[in-house]
Design a protein that fits this description.
Elements (H helix, E strand, L loop, with lengths): L17 H8 L5 H4 L3 E6 L9 E8 L2 E13 L10 E8 L2 E8 L3
Antiparallel strand pairs: 1-2, 2-3, 3-4, 4-5
Length: about 110
């Protein structure tokens, strides 16, 4: 039996310079302001960089849980060869992979 791979993608367009979008999206302190579930993020060893781990405190209704996350890619547009930049992190609960979140400009 083969293993099923699940995928879900959502896209939005933001009318702003890639460097500005990257700056606000990759600042982990903003995650609690913009997410419908994430209330707060704690970075074990700031500043955040590729390989950094952080913990997300999440809540939806009466349910509260923590996620353990790891930054896979964090590259500002000025550092990227295409001038676009990237911010990617993996989300896990109790050691199980849950999601990979990415911010890529178009």
């Amino acid at each position: 039996m083969s293993e099923r791979a699940w995928s879900l993608a959502e896209h939005i367009v933001v009318d702003a310079a890639p460097a500005e979008v990257h700056r606000v999206v990759s600042d982990l302190r903003n995650m609690g302001r913009w997410s419908p579930e994430c209330r707060r993020v704690w970075v074990a060893r700031p500043p955040a960089r590729p390989g950094s781990r952080f913990v997300g405190l999440n809540r939806r209704g009466p349910f509260v849980w923590f996620t353990t996350d790891r930054i896979r890619a964090l590259r500002a547009p000025a550092q990227a060869p295409d001038g676009a930049g990237e911010f990617t992190f993996d989300v896990g609960i109790l050691g199980l992979p849950i999601a990979r979140r990415r911010r890529l400009p178009r």
